[in-house]
Amino acid sequence: MVKLTTLLSLVIIGAVAAEMDAPKFVYHNHCQLTAFLKDVEQSYPNITHLYSIGKSIQDRDLWVMAIGESPREHIPLRPEVKYVGNMHGDETVGREILIHFIYHLVSGYGNNTEITSLLNSTRVHILVSMNPDGFENATRLKQEGQCNNDRGRYNAKGFDLNRNFPDYFEENDKEIQPETRAIMDWLQQHQFVLSANLHGGSIVANYPYDNYKNASKLNLHSKYSPSDENRVFRHLAMTYSLAHATMFQGYPCFRGKVHPHTHYFVGGTTNGAEWYPLKGGMQDYNYIYAGCMEITLEVSCCKYPLASTLEGHWNDNRKALLKFLQQVHIGFKGYILDANGKPIAGAKLFMGDRSVTSTALGEYWKLRVSTGYGFIDLIDASVSKFLSLDSGTYGH
Ligand SMILES: *[C@@H]1O[C@H](CO)[C@@H](O)[C@H](O)[C@H]1NC(C)=O
Ligand SMILES: *[C@@H]1O[C@H](CO)[C@@H](O)[C@H](O)[C@H]1NC(C)=O
Ligand SMILES: *[C@@H]1O[C@H](CO)[C@@H](O)[C@H](O)[C@H]1NC(C)=O
Ligand SMILES: *[C@@H]1O[C@H](CO)[C@@H](O)[C@H](O)[C@H]1NC(C)=O
Ligand SMILES: *[C@@H]1O[C@H](CO)[C@@H](O)[C@H](O)[C@H]1NC(C)=O
Ligand SMILES: [Zn+2]
């Protein structure tokens, strides 16, 4: 009897105190990433749920860690948000800081009030690597500290995944890749409200649109291409930029390093097409076709910096990653009901160019700002931009 009690209490202590070590500041290959995610799920079973949204061409799982007070189930009116990293396999910093962000969230739950209230009111989904094949290729073909060649950018069939989505402005005839398809299906399964996609090669928060009508014909002619909810997008981009250690300065990158000669990106943000237009990008797709407000974050000048710099990159982004997700609560939300007060699924709410479809439960979310960072509008688009600064190596 005594023995049984002792055993039981051991088990209970084990369940409560199943703490894991913080991840190290090193690059995690696919096996190590998988092991880390499984470790998190095992150590924090009440607030995490690990699932795969599909496989890369070379059969690697596209793992998503869902984190929240209800990790397995959607709670009515509680918004779903996401981060996606490493879409370009050679842009490795986003991948590693998302690993640290996952640990930050799970280890802070119940101890840090900001984290606890976020996870009690929001479900966070994190796809650490959208292009695991590209990452393996990049880290095999390049050495740490090689900032700017494109090895590993593409998926295993040579497609640029941030040019691979159906495009709102122009026809995109690229064959849709399994990694892209997995995202498109994922967007059907959950109504994501807010999202960011982490890249490298610059330090800036880039907001829609990335393209405009006939941009390809005009051969990469930069042009400001705002959506009808531009004020909200600017607020989201500015929120990240201001909470980041240096992004707000807006300095450009040159040969993998910050080049502080001019405030190149005003406030550390840019409209996508004003920087340079691209066709088939993920952020425009999220917004137009999936009702999710997504921005693109460029989080490091060097795409594959020395692992010894990763802790610094994490510290630069830590606050911003949290502040950004909190913005999902700035608007309003509710149910669309019929005359008898019954929820209507699949109702279309028009918001300028895009329509938001109510969920199966009749829910909708709408982000809103009253004043936002309006002052930035005053000093905007007249600043000239020199696309050739980092010739041949694009960020987003
Ligand atoms: C998970 O939740 C259960 C039930 O609320 C609780 O008994 C258990 O201690 C929790 N486990 C951890 C690891 O927090
Ligand atoms: C809880 O938060 C405090 C203050 O931020 C920190 O010093 C402490 O290590 C945290 N405890 C755990 C178990 O994470
Ligand atoms: C978060 O939710 C948990 C579980 O429902 C609850 O015990 C805790 O008090 C909540 N904390 C906050 C800050 O809302
Ligand atoms: C690896 O990258 C090289 C250079 O970009 C490319 O030619 C090759 O097809 C890639 N291989 C795989 C398996 O991704
Ligand atoms: C785009 O190009 C087509 C065909 O050349 C033309 O008819 C159309 O007016 C253009 N649209 C815009 C907005 O430039
Ligand atoms: Zn990129």
TrEMBL record:
Gene3D superfamilies: Zn peptidases. Residues 26-328 form the Peptidase M14 domain. InterPro entries: CARBOXYPEPT_ZN_1, CARBOXYPEPT_ZN_2, Peptidase_M14, Peptidase_M14_domain. Residues 1-18 form the signal peptide. CDD domains: M14_CP_N-E_like. It comes from the Eukaryota. GO terms for molecular function: metallocarboxypeptidase activity; zinc ion binding. One of its GO terms (cellular component) is extracellular space. Transmembrane segments: none annotated. It holds the Pfam family Peptidase_M14. GO terms for biological process: peptide metabolic process; protein processing. Its cofactor is Zn(2+). Keywords: Carboxypeptidase, Glycoprotein, Hydrolase, Metal-binding, Protease, Signal, Zinc. The active site is at E298 (proton donor/acceptor). Belongs to the peptidase M14 family. This is Peptidase M14 domain-containing protein. It comes from Ridgeia piscesae.
